[in-house]
Amino acid sequence: MVEFSLWDILRNLLMAARWTVTLSLIAFIGGGLVGLLLLVARLSKLRGAERAVGAYVQVFQGTPLLMQLFLAYFGIALFGIKTSPWTAAAVALTLYTSAYLTEIWRGCVAAIPKGQWEAAQSLALNFGEQLRHVVLPQALRIAVPPTVGFLVQVIKGTALASVIGFVELTKAGSMISNATFQPFLVYACVALLYFALCFPVSLVAQSLERKLHANRR
Amino acid sequence: MLIQLDFSAVLASWPLLVRGVVWTIGLTIVGTALGLLLGTACAWARARNLGHRPAPLRWAVASYVELVRNTPFIVQLFFLFFGLPALGLKLSPEFASVLAMVINLGAYSAEIIRAGIEATPRGQIEAAHSLALTPGQTFRRVVLPPALQKVWPAMVSQIIIVMLGSAVCGQISTPELSYAANLISSNTFRAFEAFIVATLVYLALSMLTRRLLMWVGARFLVGR
Fold this sequence. Notes:
Chain A is mainly α. Chain A has eight helices and no strands.
């Protein structure tokens, strides 16, 4: 048996944490783009768009992320495309993130008084211009704290990708724990690394929220 | 034709699915009941308008809440199930699952309930004191019911998140719904179909649970 020092364990976990961060960023950015598209589709009053996006959100919020990952993993393969845990995790987490973000942002847009839309309309702005110049700049300010807060959920969500064989922090933890027979130490380190990733983001979200409240008063 | 779905083999294993659903519901009920108790206790310890608590208590509760809220559920579960035996504390998969759910919901609900408690005006608490209610009576009868009523929708969402999170418990072989799906997929080689069925059952469960809990809230929390 190879002897692992605490430093060996931490170093290997840190290497794996890179993939947690990478996957989180992919999911967050991809999910943000898809979520924005869904939001615009919903706001544009296209026929059926509101119901379709509502159903989309309900499906992703009403089912376990773990099942979504499995479905992506086995579902993409059904189309004859060879799936790696990478693609499956990226696809599932992007869709999951987009559903939550579009719902968060919908709430932010709904918080903009109706008079603002009407005023923009009375200035003969078209839908795109109303959105770009009047509604979104205001909604964006409200949206920042909950969006940053949701990043924590995304980072924690990537831990589930370990189940379909994606080697990130959690999976690396199981592998190292199997090799070293020190599960207590290894999982404690894994938890602390997640904490080190998430807690600063939580703090930023909280302080942003406080700032926003202070401005409103 | 690449896609050929065949649900017959999966649906033929319905007893496994039923057992999974029963376990998922059971885990959720026990986890929620105990988690809400723990959350209420932590909210009581952290609420700013209920008088001063000893600093060590406040610190301990705050660290617990932040630690749990900033780490993934799966890591908490693995820590309990794989990590604790190293200290001589061997838990069964089922017990570890319930414990992880209680710890998880306890931290989240503590913050939700605290928000409700801190919305109670100081004057109401003083009024309750002046009626010679003890602090315990004040909390149970004056502070808690309206606080729960205010935050109930957020609470329901959190309970559903915990129920969906329980899918992870199958990874340590707790026989809940996702474990059943895994089992069926390896028995029948119909992985996609098995997970589609399980996912739809989860969707139905979460929609029904939301309805039920909102009804319970409207029925028992309002007008007290």
